[in-house]
Amino acid sequence: VMLKDRAAAFEAIDGVEEGGFRDAVLRGLALPHKMIPSRFFYDERGSALFEDITRLEAYYPTRSEMAIFEGHGADIAAHLPETRALVEFGSGSSLKIRAMLKAMPQLTHYAPIDISGEMLTREAQALSADFPDLEVVPIHADFMSPVELPKELREIGKLAFFPGSTIGNLEPYEALEFLARVRDTVGTGGHLLIGVDRKKDTETLVRAYDDPEGVTAAFNLNLLARANRELEADFDLSGFAHEARYNADRGRIEMHLKSLKEQAVSIGACRFDFTEGETIHTENSYKYAPDEFRLLARAARFEPVATWTDANERFAVYLLQS
Ligand code: AVI
């Protein structure tokens, strides 16, 4: 990368909406190790591709976690006799939520928190129809920042729900901050039910992120297609390949987009050079052994109450108490 190009990228950021896609791509590609944050995967096309991933044979997490909620719902509920409100961090896991709502007749309130107002409305309407006795309280907010709960939720027993191993997409220090914020939200005596993918053999892990059907490859490459659509970038999609690696030292799957040749890419007035084999790092997905995750929970001052795993012991669901 030429330094003057990087400087041009930083100049071009002036006036660009902070925290938006353009800002993130210009900054990320100007770094010595190019990267684009994984939260930008989820435009309309990317969200549809992620849905497809969750149904793949190779992608075991969704299926394994669902089996835990379905098989152990009553046992989970038995630990939570005082809980009245289920607070979901990030709506959109409708099947998992339904399994928990069915298992917990003691609930009076369901409060999904989501940054997308559209997602919230859709989810709230569907659930109100199927659970007419449940008060649905949608909260339009970014759950990565502190969330203030509406009055009706303040005095009742709360269970935060964060399935899908989404915590794995955070750096461990961010995961710790996130857990501490959830703890503030549920208050003393409140609980968190969280799904976390486990460490396992490299082959199973890599296959889950490099499936034979190529859906995860399409999901990863969609970032470049999105940059072409939204930022007038000129990425040649056939010049990049999807790569999933397990970094055992860090305990994480890494996804990269690897340049197959020496090439230059323009984004508006900026130019980024790629050497052959150079990658754009697009995602980390951390895997936690049960002891490691319970330690992280304790560091956030949560007390682990119980742990459930699927029959193949690939995935874990933890119940933590504040
Ligand atoms: C959303 N998140 C938990 C997924 C994961 O497994 O880290 C995203 C994903 N990336 C590739 N496949 C799935």
Explain this structure to me?
- Strands 1, 2, 3, 4, 5, 6, 12 and 13 form an 8-stranded mixed sheet that branches.
- The chain has 11 helices and 13 strands.
- The radius of gyration is 21 Å and the shape is globular.
- The chain has 322 residues and is an alpha/beta fold.
- Bound molecules: N,N-dimethyl-L-histidine.
- N,N-dimethyl-L-histidine binds at residues 53, 61, 164-166, 168-169, 209, 216, 283, 285.
Assign the structural class, choosing from mainly alpha, mainly beta, alpha/beta, alpha+beta, or little secondary structure. Answer: alpha/beta
Order of secondary-structure elements: HHHHEHEHEEHEHEHHEEEEEHEE
Instruction: Identify the bound ligands.
Output: N,N-dimethyl-L-histidine
Low-confidence stretches: none
For the biggest sheet, the summary is: 8 strands, mixed
Total E-strand runs: 13
Summarize this entry quickly:
The protein has 322 residues and is an alpha/beta fold. The chain has helices at residues 3-13, 21-30, 44-54, 60-78, 94-103, 117-130, 151-154, 172-186, 202-209, 215-231, 290-299, and strands at 83-89, 109-114, 135-136, 139-140, 157-162, 191-197, 240-247, 252-259, 263-267, 270-274, 279-286, 303-309, 315-321. The chain contains 11 helices and 13 strands.
Features of this protein?
globular, 24% strand, 8-stranded mixed β-sheet, 322 residues, 13 strands, 11 helices, 40% helix, 3-stranded antiparallel β-sheet, binds N,N-dimethyl-L-histidine, EgtD_Methyltrsf_superfamily, alpha/beta
